[in-house]
Every structure is written in C-alpha cells, then in structure tokens.
Amino acid sequence: MLGDHWPGIQLYYPPVKYSPSLGVYEDLETASLRMKKHAHDTHAHTLIFDLEDGCRQKELSRELLRKELPHFQRNKRKVTIAIRVNPFRTEEYEKDMQLVRDCADYIDAIMLAKAGEAYGAAEVRDLSNLLVGLNSRITIQPIIEHPKSLKIAPDLMQYSTVKHVVFGIHDFSKAMGIHITPEHWTEELKYYLNMLMFEARIAGKGVIGGVETLIGSSSMPEKFVEPNDVRRWLDLHGENESRIVYKHACQEAAMGLTGKQVIHPGHIHLCKVAYTPSPTEIAQKIKILKAAIEADALLGGAIRFEGEMLDPPMFGKALQTLLRANALRALSVDDAQFAMTVLQLMPAQVIRENWPYGVIL
Asked: Residue 349 CB: number of other CB atoms within 10 A?
C-alpha cells in the first residue's frame, strides 16, 4: 500500500569523464578509482550513469560499468542504480542493451532517452518485453524531451514497467524553440510541466523534475534539515546559485514531483531537504491525523486544530506528507506503521485518491 521508494534526488555520474587538468579522458583504472572514491558514498537517492548525451567514451564507459556495478550490491548505503541509454533502436542503444543483459542483476531503472520520438509507445513496449526476460524488477523512466513525447505521454505511461517519467527540460525547450534561463526555467516551462503532471496523476505515475545547470562553490551541511535552518544557511553562507536551485526544488516538491536530477554533488542535500518533509512537519501531520481519528472525523466531519478548521481533504494532505516522507526514505519505522494504520481505516477508493503509487491487495 505504501508503494516503492521514489527516485528522489538523482545524481548524474559520468562513467568515464574528461580531465581538464590533463587534457585527456580517463582510462579505465582512473575512472574505476574515482567511482570507488565518490560514487559508493553518495548521499543521492539515485545514481544515473549516462551513456547518451553526456558520454563521449561510450564503449569504455560500458566496460567500466560491467566491472563496477556488481560492487554496489555490497554498499552499506542503499542507492538506486539507473542507466540512461541511447535512443531506441540506434546502434548505441543495441550496445546499451547488451550491457543491460550482462548487468541486469545490478540495475534498478533504465532511463530511455528521447522516448517515443521515433517509434511511439512501441519503444517502451519492446523495452518492457526485454526486461521481463532479464529482471522484472527493473523499471523504465521514459524521458520526455520533445512535444511528440508529451503528446503521447499517456501511451508511454500505460505500461506497468513505467513508475516515473522524466521531464527533459533542455532538449524539450530546444525542440519547442523556447530559450529557457537557468534562473527562471520553472516559470518558462510551467505550462508543459503542468500538462505532464496532469497526465501522470491520472495514470498514477510520478514525474522527475528538471536538471539544474547552475553550479556554486559551497555545499550545505547535512545537519540542516528544517526549513528555517536551511533559509538561515542560505542567507549567511549560500550563493545565488544555491538559492535558485533550492527555490526550484521547493516549487517542484510543492507540485508533487517524485524526483529531481542534479549534476553537482553540492546540490544533493539542498534538493533533498526541499523535497523531503522535515521532522517538524512530519510530527505536525501525525498530530493532525491522530486528532482526526480520535474525533472519528477521518472520513467525514471536521475538527478544530491549533486555531484552524480541518476536514477530510486536509487529513488526506497530512497523510500524503507521511507517505511522501516514506517514499523518500525519511520516515521512521514507527511513523511508517502509523501511516499504515491510517490507510487501513480508509476505503480503497479514498486510498487511491490520496496515494496512487501503492498497490491495494
């Protein structure tokens, strides 16, 4: 009923990267050492290994992933592994699929670049059929990068292998001829993001937000988790880039997005706290739900709570906060059990209205 964990904050991690200081690309050994040093200790929910636009050394990158992906199973910190593959039925896509066959046990999600642009929803259908024969646990995250893809978004989301879709803001804006800015892209693409959110909500799927290109030089310490503390740090130590990234992440979270992509490790915690309900907020929502249950008003009626009149829609939002925290791996065992208790007091239809991401048995 609670559903799987969400993609959350997804960090793009280059398998084999260019070294500006040396003026050459890494060799296999250097890339392997870098991955062991940084990737295994990431605080991101998801690691994205990009084999498409961000990858110049594709063959060497695939060789690196064959070597390194099995080691993530022994990582104490559970991190989701996503592979961004090349567009459907291209030569590089076929090579990517061989990697997927070889490493299916170590991959959690396939991000399909330029989904549906060439062959429509059949791309997701065929990829789904392939994955069923390899590892049925692997999900597909179609990347909406063109108005063609947005138009057929309901068709792309009809498959059970698709739990979340990605809004590829940079390719999408290029295809539309919209010149977005790093500071205001959330407003400049708001109409199209709302369209995608609308279709995803009907289909019971999640949406992963846009990747930020602004990069600052400071990182917020992980001890800051409450909104007031975050704003204080941003005022005293944050740069303009950090403030903009945090603002965008808060806007996306308020819209109900289930994940966000970042390209810099310094953005991980900043976006995490924007997306994840704080401990104070979780405690507040639990108090509201307990008051509603005590007054027998969970499914009908109203209560007065701290100077405010609350009724079932507000109780539903309080429950959504707990379920969101659980989906982002930020809910304690006891609080998750309480959320389950609340769900068990609700009819199936009410659960679906409040939380389309789980499965009602």
From this structure: 9
The closest alpha carbon to 320, from 295, 344, 289, belongs to 289
Distance (Å, whole) CA 18 – CA 141 = 27
Helix (H, G, I), strand (E, B) or coil at 349: helix
Tokens read off for 49: 């290994």
Residues in the chain: 361
pLDDT of 267: 94
Distance CA 72, CA 81 (A): 9
171 CB neighbour count, 10 Å cutoff: 17
β-partners of residue 142 are 112
Which pLDDT score is estimated for 74?
A: 57
99-131 burial code (b ≥16 CB/10 A, e <16): bbeebbebbbbbbbbbbbbeebbebbbebbeeb
Cβ neighbour number for residue 341 with a 10 Å cutoff: 11
**Residue (of 86, 94, 101, 95) closest to 133 by Cα position:** 101
Q: How far, in Å, CA of 192 to CA of 145, rounded? A: 11
pLDDT in tens, 250-294: 999 999 999 999 999 999 999 999 999 999 999 999 999 999 999
- Written as six digits, the tokens of 354 are 């409040």
3-state helix, strand, coil in the chain (%, to 5): 50, 15, 35
Do strands 24-25 and 18-19 pair parallel, antiparallel, or not at all (unpaired)? antiparallel
d(CA 263, CA 342) in angstroms, rounded, equals 38
The DSSP output letter for 289 is H
Confidence class of residue 75 from pLDDT cuts 50, 70 and 90? low
